[in-house]
Design goal:
11 strands, single chain, 539 residues, alpha/beta, globular
């Protein structure tokens, strides 16, 4: 492999260069990083790198001096490829460096595509000057990496794209498409998941840590199976093991030994926690989905086993009835109401009550996962009542807490805090749009929409003249009073159509309509669907 030295007085820049590129895929390895020109020169003499990526401005000896000193050494017949890093203000120095014989220069901020292009150019030059044996070896290594990528795509199809149909292909079809033989009958799915202390946005440490863990897995586990493949997926290293004999005990023993290897990483990155989920070992590729689901279930069942590094699980999906025993129709209704009215106090109380109830079920990770997903669904549904608001989120964003945090308390506190933050942001945007009387009127309407409600009784409730209140309501909301009442009734009817099995006439009565035909006409006017069509489409 080509040896690469990185020299930059900014540690962050050196780390960025290390993480931007999959060095091993290019047939390269970073042998070190230094922060001044003198140390760079000493390491070049000692380690004899093939490629030096150096900043122009460095203490001790700048990049130009370093290039002159190395490329001008008498008696040196060994080619060193230099890449200079410069800012726009140092452009003339970069041009001078090119004249000295450097391969190229990169302008800050460094971009992945530009760095890869320069490295590929150097690789081509190196290959052209290498002897026949080295060239053949490099080509073989690249071919092996390409073949491994094709093999790994089989696992990607299963895990990332959920293409389960490939499990039904025969062995020859799988070999032709993915170049993997699977000589054994036993398959095991393993997931190494990285959890963090706090949910972050883009975290560059993932790009550094996950490949390291993937390499450890390969070194530790490859010799114990006939065929193996591994991919990085979200915050995980995902592995497939195929063996002629059922070697589950060997797998488990080696996976435990990984804890020592990974502890060295944790010492440098203390905010991370690693857990390994081991799926059931299955006989026959057609059963592999069971191994995937049980490995995922093992990770989900982590809450009651806080100190465990290795998680095994038989796998059990929580039923709808179990989830609804915790998130009952009444709880769901209260949550939706508090979200719609932006009643953060009621919302917080409901979620904290649920959290206390769930704390008695820490051993049932599938139930906790089912409840978490249900709460995400309810919150998204409740946000739909904020018709014109720009404050929106997606189910994926709300699931991040479950994916990235390890403990029960941290996961559910994150969900509560994140939902409250969204509600508070929405409330802030509404402060300048709605006066308090309008909010009181809306609250009254939401609590009494199923009764005979009128402009007169609502305006009387909040202490305003009906004509003045009607004008104020239209100015604040952009809607006529009765249009808003109808909208709230239809919104609640939509929820009942999806959440209950009551017939349409019963639902019409529950939201304040005794005339079924009139209700159906109003419903279709607002949704472009009849109540029955809406239920079929969204149930």
């Amino acid at each position: 492999m080509l040896k690469v030295l990185i020299a930059d007085d900014e540690i962050k820049v050196s780390k960025l260069i290390q993480c931007l590129v999959q060095w091993d895929e290019l047939g390269m390895e970073v042998i070190g990083t230094v922060n001044d020109g003198v140390k760079a020169y000493e390491m070049i003499l000692e380690k004899q790198p093939d490629i030096v990526i150096t900043d122009i401005r460095m203490p001790g000896m700048d990049g130009i001096e370093l290039v002159e000193k190395v490329l001008g050494r008498v008696g040196s017949d060994r080619k060193v490829f230099f890449v200079i890093i410069s800012g726009y203000s140092q452009f003339e120095y970069a041009q001078q460096a090119v004249k000295l014989g450097v391969e190229d220069y990169l302008l800050k901020p460094i971009k992945k595509k530009e760095l890869e292009a320069v490295l590929h150019k150097i690789l081509s030059k190196y290959s052209a000057t290498a002897n026949a044996l080295e060239e053949k070896e490099n080509l073989q290594n690249r071919l092996q990496r390409t073949q491994q990528k094709i093999k790994n795509s089989f696992l990607s199809e299963l895990v990332d794209n959920h293409r389960q149909a490939i499990l039904k292909l025969d062995r020859e079809e799988i070999y032709r498409e993915f170049e993997c033989r699977f000589p054994g009958e036993y398959f095991t799915h393993v997931v190494v998941h990285l959890f963090i202390n706090a949910v972050a946005g883009d975290d560059e440490d993932y790009g550094f840590l996950l490949p390291k863990i993937q390499k450890m897995m390969k070194e530790r586990m490859e010799k114990y199976c006939s065929e193996w493949m591994s991919i990085i997926h979200n915050e995980e290293v995902v592995c497939l093991f195929n063996s002629v004999e059922n070697k589950r005990e060997d797998f488990i023993r080696q996976l435990y030994r990984l804890k020592v290897d990974i502890s060295n990483i944790k010492a440098l990155f203390p905010r991370y926690k690693v857990a390994i989920g081991v799926g059931r070992t299955v006989e026959g590729l057609e059963q592999y989905q069971e191994s995937i689901s049980t490995a995922m279930s093992a990770i989900r069942n982590r809450f009651g086993r806080k100190d465990e590094f290795l998680l095994e699980e038989e796998g059990r999906a929580a039923s709808e009835s179990e989830v609804s025993s915790i998130v009952s129709a009444a709880v769901k209704r209260d949550l939706l109401k508090s979200i719609e009215l932006v009643d953060t106090e009621s919302f917080l109380k409901s979620l904290r009550d649920l959290k206390r109830e769930l704390s008695a079920h820490l051993q049932d990770g599938e139930l906790l996962y089912g409840v978490y997903r249900e709460l995400v669904t309810i919150f998204i549904m409740g946000m739909n009542s904020w018709f014109d608001s720009e404050i929106k989120t997606t189910p994926w964003e709300l699931m991040r807490g479950y994916q990235q945090l390890y403990g029960f308390e941290e996961v559910f506190d994150w969900l509560i805090d994140h939902c409250l933050e969204i509600m508070e942001r929405y409330e802030e945007t509404q402060k300048n749009q709605e006066a308090r009387p309008i909010r009181l009127a809306k609250q009254y309407i939401n609590e009494n929409y199923n009764k005979a409600i009128s402009l007169e009784n609502v305006s009387s409730h909040i202490g305003f003249n009906p004509a003045y209140f009607s004008s104020m309501f239209k100015k604040a909301t952009g809607q006529n009073f009765m249009d808003y009442v109808i909208e709230i009734r239809v919104l609640n009817a939509r929820n009942l159509l999806v959440q209950t099995n009551q017939d349409v006439a019963e639902i019409a009565a529950r939201v304040g309509y005794t005339d079924l035909k009139y209700f159906s006409r109003i419903f279709k006017k607002l949704t472009n669907l009849t109540p029955s069509e809406y239920r079929r489409l969204y149930s």
